[in-house]
Amino acid sequence: ASPVAIEWDADGALFVCEMRGYSENRNDQLSRITRLVDDNDDGIFDRKTVFVEGLLWPTAVFPYDGGLFVADAPDILYFKDTNDDGIADEKEVIYTGFSTGNVQGLLNSFRWGLDNRVHIACGTVGGKVRRAGDDEAKAVEVRGHDFAFDPKTYEFSLTSGGAQHGMCFDDWGRKFVSSNSDHLQQVMYEDRYIARNPLLAAPPVRKSIAIDGPQAEVFRVSPVEPWRIVRTRLRVAGLVGGPVEGGGRAAGYFTGATGVTIYRGDAWAEPFRSLAIIGDVGSNLVHRKRLMPNGVHMLGSRMDVESEFIASTDNWFRPAQFACGPDGNLSIVDVYREVIEHPKSLPPEIKQHLDLTSGRDRGRIYRVVSDGYRHRPTPHLSSLSSEMLVKLLEHRNAWHRETAARLIFERGDHSIYDQLRRQASQSESALGRLHSLYALKGLNELEPADLVARFSDPHPQIVRHAVRLSESFPSDDSIAEGLSRLIDHPSIEVRYQLAFTLGEFSLESTPDLLADLLMQD
Predict the structure, then answer these.
(1) Contact 5, 59 (CB under 8 A)
(2) 356 φ, ψ to 5°?
(3) pLDDT, tens digit (0-9, with 9 covering 90-100), for 151-205
(4) Cα separation of 489 and 133, whole Å?
(5) Which one-letter DSSP state was computed for residue 198?
(6) What's the pLDDT band for 41 if we cut at 50, 70, 90?
(7) Which of 129, 175, 202, 506 has its CA 20 to 30 A from that of 290?
(8) Do strands 90-98 and 127-131 pair parallel, antiparallel, or not at all (unpaired)?
(9) Is 445 exposed, middle or buried (0-12, 13-18, 19+ CB in 10 A)?
(10) pTM
């Protein structure tokens, strides 16, 4: 009912975040997290338990160490089931202070990062966030940023972002976000680099990368709601407040973009990998774009001519989030509500005729599969040895790689670092080499020699990340020498990362190296 986010644990159980208090019933504590289990592994869930209930406005979930992080503004909480009955019996507030000022701008989108941290989009309402129990004087304003934390130590920092609802990474750690009327954006740099010079007026961290523009045309097949037509007329006439968009049209363009997700599964044919998937909850459709490199950023190109990847005639279809799970397919999280509009954007003369709770008892999760798809057994990764988890870092499906990386980090098993080091240098999979480097970093076993060797890796993304990881060794001469040899690297993304990374080193040659980069680009 009213699902807004889903995540699988290491053994394939699916946690569903049900925001039943949307949009005006937060304090009624109607929301919950349910846990779905497929007992006979046929790809269909057989059993459901309510893992946590009595929540306010939960918007994201993430499994870790046998428990579950839950975003329920103003808090991020951690729940755990200690007696294996499918119901949480332990609760801890980890962070507090996220704002609840806008139900459509809350924190959202838990994602596991290459850096072995949990990343989350802070939404648009911000808040002064601190560790639970810390003095308020330690709170940090998160507005305009995103948030990442170490799930072991709970240390956190601000990261680049600050869009509305939807955040994801691609296979190479590029970050993408979306906002209501700016459906596809790429995060272009990390705030921590710019913070070294507080006097620098930097360009915006988020760049719109859709070729057809932020408020691109969409091709809905559902009828335009009569109230939407009336509201547009009132806005055009200046009788009610609110933006006049789309040249005064009531529909036909992005107004409720959400849940940007890069398809990173392995169940679809190769041409469909790395697509950007975005929902428009106001237009009842799912849009897709093909990503293409364009210098230091990507460009998103519409794939469907005057149509959409998925369009529904049902006005209640509200695709708010997406996920790729153990089966390698794309799942669509459909809130399924009669009215998804923010209540504050509805004039009183319209709002009085609408039931904002209609559909509270409904919700859908769709799985999009290719023709001829057959369900494959879901692995129970928690029971695998650490050595087997290392091999999964090479898997084509992102869920396998990231879950294995998370489990390696959780266990802290140092017996595998030789295997990781070999895989980081010898794996035929570039993604396997990449994840192995970051696994070594998470175990505090990464050495300068591991990175210097990767400065000459045939894959430019491995070189880029080796440059970034080298910031852990600012005094190492071999690292400094290796970086200086990358000034003329053929990849502009490598040179772009190098320009930021050089500022972390106190080298006499840094100004000259930066000047060389500047003259090239």
Answers:
(1) yes
(2) -75, -5
(3) 999 999 999 999 999 999 999 999 999 999 999 999 999 999 999 999 999 999 9
(4) 48
(5) T
(6) very high
(7) 202
(8) antiparallel
(9) middle
(10) 0.97
